[in-house]
Amino acid sequence: MSNEGAATATTRAVSTTAPADAPRPEHGLGASLQPADAQAKTEGTFPYASDLWAEGLLWAALLRSPHPHARIVAVDTSEATAMPGVRAVVTAADIPGDAAHGRRVHDRPVFAADVVRHHGEPIAAVAADHPDTARMAAAAIQVEYEVLDPITDPEQAFAAEPLHPDGNLIRHIPLRYGDPEAAGEVVVEGLYRIGRQDPAPIGAEAGLAVPRPDGGVELYVASTDPHTDRDLAAACYGLEPDRVKVVVTGVPGATADREDPGFQLPLGLLALRTSCPVKLTATREESFLGHAHRHPTLLRYRHHADAEGRLVKVEAQILLDAGAYADASSESLAAAVSFACGPYVVPHAFIEGWAVRTNNPPSGHVRGEGAMQVCAAYEAQMDKLAGKLGLDPAELRLRNVLATGDILPTGQTVTCPAPVAELLRSVRDFDLPPLPKDTPEEEWLLPGGLEGAGEPAAIRRGVGYALGMVHMLGAEGADEVSTATVKVQDGVATVICAAVDTGQGFSTLARQIVQETLGIDEVHVASVDTDQPPAGPACRGRHTWVSGGAVERAAKMVRTQLLQPLAAKFGMSTELLQITDGKITSYDGVLSTTVTEAMDGKELWATAQCRPHPTEPLDDTGQGDAFVGLAFCAIRAVVDVDVEMGSVRVVELAVAQDVGRVLNPAQLRARIEAGVTQGVGAALTENLRTPKGLIRHPDLTGYALPTALDTPDIRIVKLVEERDVVAPFGAKPASAAPVVTSPAAVAGAVRAATGRAVNRLPIRPQAAVVQEG
After folding, report:
1. Nearest-CA neighbor of 259 among 179, 203, 311, 302?
2. Helices in 546-637 by DSSP H: which ranges?
3. Contact of 480 with 628, CB cutoff 8 Å
4. pLDDT in tens, 232-285
5. Looking at residues 178-197, what average pLDDT do you find?
6. Region labeled Disordered — which residues (predicted)?
7. Which residues pair with 461 in a beta bridge?
8. Which residues contact 389 (CB under 8 A, 6 or more apart)?
9. Percent of the chain having pLDDT more than 90?
């Protein structure tokens, strides 16, 4: 569920980090400051990308392939070009620059030229004076295909003919840690499958391209990484980057990089060809066909433990289906392999990981990529071990949990806070919800909903546990850097930073940082475009750390500029002065003035960068300090299962999370609740079905997102505020960890209720049916 940062209406969260009536500041860090755009979004007046308009506007439409794999024999655009109102038709032959794109690997064509590699791949684009005309013209383009057999099973990709000039194997990581001959007294094995989850943004992709007098173009799009999008567009158009400008507008909430660059690039081509503004708003079907999805994954596991339940060795094989193009598959595989053992101490680990191309829809970055898939598998293995040893599932986990100072199977020492045991004990000891028999029958909410056909006698309750971990920022040597400028004049501060707020709350955080540092209440965050220095993509909690760190450093530099003249005048150091509620005072009370008086009409500004400590790529044996930091989460799920019908209702999810520091309590709770809800969707309903490579039911009727009625009670029982000393403010990212952990917890609870293996996500009804006798 991609409404990131928004709490679902029916969720109820409680925090036990402090008493409910504990005082919180009204502004600055630690306050529940309301987002500046909250009222506009609530009233429906916020201008999203689909609301854009320009004088002389043309409308665009894309022709997409109906086949997952085919050779293009011929493309005839004559009928479309001749239609009244059509202003331009472009294909691969009309691209003046790079014909391929990709944020990480440039292997994806803007338009398919010779071969179609997935269902929905763009073939051509049309610009016309009416959206209906554009769609009819796109449909009128004649494409002669030689249909080829698609490779849709990732296991077959190893021996199949190459689907791409770069081959079918994108990456192989063989992780070797410890003694391969080590063995435990108890061994459990499992085979697991994770389905294809779509980001399903509430607002589909939209954008506007406007030609410039200098022969360049401006792209108004809901980008989450504008500078990368600008560079891709400039390369495609054969222009210098300074002649392409990306203006971020109307981001409707995103689970990181959910937008499709292949959707944006045709816009500029058409605008440059027609010398007119061109707008494109994707249908829901086009949105499903175009953007990347979570990697479907096949996992084989073998866990070894001693008689006391302590892990001895983990062996695993992990196969990621990348779909037609590489995108973020290399990074996703690195996370999957590195976290394949979970937040547990494992003396010996041998993991094989592969990411391969198929003719399935492209996979890419979705919150918790790689980590979510392996969490479902290793937690299922822990449940199997507990069952075989006759141990309580929570107790077995407590005997193996990771702590600060332990070593990951990658050889990296965990130097950040890792309060995994504390998190698990918190959810284990939290009161269980009442059983239906303890409430009036008319208040029972059975699996299947209020009008469900289930019988109370067929309901079984189950409790499951899961521990998850994610990495923060980029990994394996990624250069994480962001730049920010803070300006102050006439008692008003302005933050300029190209960090896109996709719903994670960066704009609100930036305001809080400046309020905290400069004591100025009125803080504005400038809109984002590529005239500003780069800040990088909006994913993995980057902007809280890197961009927030840059804003803090710039604000502190302005603070020094403000205080130095006063300190010099009174013969004291700036450290002896403090700013609170817009007033500057000295430690001894001699100096007392307002920020506005101290400014004396001047404008103060500073620009700063934040760059975390470097990481390194994993080597040929999967070893290396690949991650800047880690975050952890524990969830206890309670479910009711109708064992005759196989329907599941998640009653409650108790969450304990390692957050470093609470910067905005309301925003943090909303992030956790949204992440948990997305995980519930992955556990029970969300599966983009692609038989023979064809996306079936690419709409929100066929793709079952959890609604407010499907959302369980979410109890935030513990937020551990143990600050990470290397992170600005000590905070950790909030939303990815519950996305990773909640599907595994729900699956564990269904296992407990039914006694079934539950080795596939989402959980199919037949997997939860119990045959009597």
Report:
1. 203
2. 548-569, 595-599
3. yes
4. 999 999 999 999 999 998 876 666 456 677 888 999 999 999 999 999 998 989
5. 97
6. 1-38
7. 640
8. 186, 305, 307, 309, 396
9. 69
Distance between the two ends of the chain, CA-based, in angstroms?
39
Are the C-beta atoms of residues 339 and 377 closer than 8 Å to each other?
no
Whose CA is closest to 469, among 657, 302, 300?
Answer: 657
Side-chain-side CA neighbours of 400 within 13 Å: the count stands at 32
663 in Cβ contact with 509 (< 8 Å): yes
Q: Taking the CB of residue 565, how many other CB atoms lie within 10 A of it?
A: 13
Contact yes or no for 730/664 (Cβ under 8 A): no
The three-state (H, E, C) secondary structure of 192-211, written as one string: EEECCCCCCCCCCCEEEEEE
The Cα-based distances of 307 to 184, 185, 304, 345 in angstroms read 8, 6, 10, 16
Amino acid code (one letter) for 353: G
For 603-620, the pLDDT digits (tens) are 999 999 999 989 999 999
Strand partners, 61: 126
Burial of 613 (0-12, 13-18, 19+ CB in 10 A): exposed
CA distance 337 to 357: 18
CA distances 742 to 275, 373, 646, 653, Å, are 50, 11, 20, 8
pTM (2 d.p.): 0.93
Query: Dihedrals φ, ψ of 480, to 5°?
Result: -90, 115
Tokens of 482: 């962001």
Q: Classify the phi-psi angles of 8: left when phi > 0, otherwise alpha if psi is within -120 to 50, otherwise beta.
A: beta
**Residue 112 burial (10 A CB sphere; 0-12, 13-18, 19+):** buried
- The answer to whether the Cα torsion of 733, 737, 740, 746 is positive or negative is negative
What are the C-alpha distances in Å from 116 to residues 9, 76, 498?
43, 16, 35
pLDDT tens digit sequence for 557-600: 999 998 888 888 888 888 888 887 778 888 777 788 888 888 87
pLDDT band, very low/low/confident/very high, at 5 (cuts 50, 70, 90): very low
C-alpha span between 327 and 323 (Å, rounded): 9
> For residue 287, which amino acid is it?
S
Nearest Cα residue to 54 out of 280, 232, 214: 280
Instruction: Decide: 402 and 379 in contact? Cβ < 8 Å.
Output: no
The model's pLDDT over 152-168, given as tens digits with 9 standing for 90+, comes to 999 999 999 999 999 99
Alpha carbons within 13 A on the beta-carbon side of 44: 0
Look at residues 634, 636, 655, 633 and name the one whose alpha carbon lies nearest to residue 732. 633
Average pLDDT on 126-147 reads 97
Q: In what order do the strands lie in the sheet with 583-586?
A: 577-580, 583-586, 592-594
* Residue 417 CA: distances (Å) to CA of 113, 242, 467: 51, 43, 15
> Does residue 318 or residue 251 have the better pLDDT?
318
Q: In the prediction, which pLDDT does 724 show? A: 87
- In the predicted model, what is the mean pLDDT of residues 322-348? 96
Per-residue pLDDT reduced to its tens digit, 728-748: 888 988 889 999 999 999 999
Q: Quick one: which of 328, 616, 370, 625 has its CA closest to 476?
A: 616
Fill in the amino acid letter for 552.
Answer: E
Instruction: List beta partners, residue 221.
Output: 207, 248
Placement of tokens 């189950």 in the chain: 462
Can you tell me the distance from the alpha carbon of 233 to that of 366, in angstroms, rounded to the nearest whole number? Answer: 23
Burial of 285 (0-12, 13-18, 19+ CB in 10 A): middle
